[in-house]
Design goal:
This protein is of the alpha+beta class and about 450 residues long. It has 10 helices and 22 strands. Strand 17 and strand 18 form a beta hairpin. Helix 3 runs antiparallel to helix 4. It is globular and about 80 Å long. The N terminus is likely disordered.
């Protein structure tokens, strides 16, 4: 572990708010705190054993790094890419993504929960509340249910297109999907428990457990109380996806859905919600998901990754070459279409270029800007767009860019950071238009 990662992990363990959360939230592995407790108690033998445990974990869990200039995708990155998958871009034609085509990112292992285990699953709501709750699935379903259509995107989408490339899950542009999520508003459960006046954050713990940068952990994230209790966007404790129980890879039997936020906030296999009186400083909150703009400053704390930056994706036109995925079209009118979204505000404009960004023309957006089909929360789902291109023989590069109501526009040059997060650089699609013929 390099110096930067050692300091990051120490901050994650010792920062304000973590100790309170760890006293309340069940963990299988707060190793650093266990070690500190043993040292304080004077148990040198046990402290030595804890040191050995930490050293063993670090031996199999490499620090974060950036690839060397000529370094290709590693076998480890290929293994990640094989177990996680993106949306095939032709599936952008579906307004609601079928579960098997929706992107998947799983940090550790998918917990095994059979039908009986799902019914026995419990979700705790505790910490700075007046009435702690233990909710089984039947109790969760007894609350009035709501359904929100939400576009979800991985924070690392676009990472593999960065130069230099952060070494991690090598996403291109396909880590996205839109689903109809059904469940109970989080604010309903918190109102049932009664929020104490000094509560400032809600900490969410999933059942997935692993090691990252030498730190053994359950997957945990938090939200400020103002976001956790907001009515727009309304955070959901969801148990259905597209009208059916959550699939295993999407968090069965219950997960968090946070409209407008990148996927790291949507904790899957949710088992515990703890309100804290100080900000949470767990690994995924203060170490992993940060915009660190400097490539060589080990003390750069970065800024937190939160809301989704605007993006437009085009359905690749024509037909593809198998290996290169270069598109082939025939001369004449070609319909260009796709989807656009933002976590800051609704998308208000999509522009399309057929000459690699030299000139731009505005595409037509669907009329609805949320709620067009009666689903509350559709303002946080993608919008379809389309235009027609008169294709001429030759080589072309197609691209599209989105602008939202808050004034955010996709960049034409990469927005680099060490973790490879939030890279919403415009998509570029090489296209060969065939010669004119009979």
């Amino acid at each position: 572990m390099d110096g930067r990662d050692a300091r990051d992990v120490q901050a994650a363990r010792q920062g304000p708010g973590q100790a309170e959360a760890e006293r309340i939230v069940p963990h299988d592995g707060p190793i650093g705190d266990a070690h500190a407790s043993l040292e304080h108690a004077g148990d040198a033998h046990a402290a030595h054993a804890a040191d050995a445990h930490i050293s063993a974990l670090r031996a199999v869990s490499a620090p974060a790094r950036v690839a060397e200039p000529a370094e290709g995708i590693s076998a480890e990155e290929l293994a990640l890419a094989a177990r996680n998958h993106g949306l095939p871009l032709e599936a952008l034609r579906y307004e609601v993504t079928p579960p098997g085509l929706h992107y998947v990112l799983v940090h550790y292992d998918i917990p095994t929960v059979d039908a009986a285990g799902a019914e026995d699953w419990t979700l705790a709501v505790r910490g700075r509340v007046r009435t702690p709750l233990t909710l089984d699935m039947a109790t969760l379903r007894s609350f009035p249910a709501v359904t929100h259509r939400v576009t979800m995107e991985c924070a690392g989408n676009g990472r593999a297109r960065l130069t230099p490339r952060p070494v991690s899950q090598p996403w291109l542009v396909e880590a996205v999907g839109t689903a109809d999520w059904t469940g109970v508003p989080l604010r309903t459960l918190l109102a049932e428990a009664g929020v104490e006046p000094d509560a400032v954050e809600a900490v969410f713990t999933g059942a997935d457990h692993g090691v990252e940068r030498g730190v053994e952990q359950d997957y945990q994230r938090s939200l400020p109380l103002s976001d956790a209790t907001a009515d727009d966007p309304e955070v959901l404790v969801a148990y259905e996806m597209n009208g059916a129980p959550l699939p295993p890879q999407h968090g069965h039997p219950v997960r968090l859905v946070v409209p407008g936020w990148y996927g790291m906030a949507h904790v899957k296999w949710l088992r515990d919600i703890t309100l804290t009186s100080t900000p949470f400083t767990g690994f995924q909150q203060t170490v992993a998901y940060r915009y660190r703009r400097s490539a060589d400053d080990p003390d750069d704390p970065g800024e937190p990754v939160t809301r989704i930056a605007p993006r437009a994706l085009m359905i690749p036109p024509g037909f593809p070459d198998f290996m290169s995925r270069t598109r082939v079209v025939r001369p004449g009118p070609v319909q260009l279409e796709g989807r656009a979204w933002s976590g800051h505000a609704p998308v208000t404009k999509v522009e399309v270029s057929t000459d690699d960004g030299d000139t731009w023309a505005e595409a037509a957006l669907e009329d609805g800007r949320g709620g067009h089909d009666g689903l509350k929360g559709s303002a946080w789902a993608w919008r379809s767009w389309r235009t027609t291109w008169e294709a001429a023989p030759g080589t072309h590069v197609l691209t599209a860019r989105a602008t939202d109501a808050a004034g955010h526009t996709q960049p034409l040059d990469q927005p680099w950071n060490r973790g490879g997060f939030g890279n919403n650089l415009v998509q570029r699609i090489p296209v060969i238009c065939l010669p004119r013929g009979d």
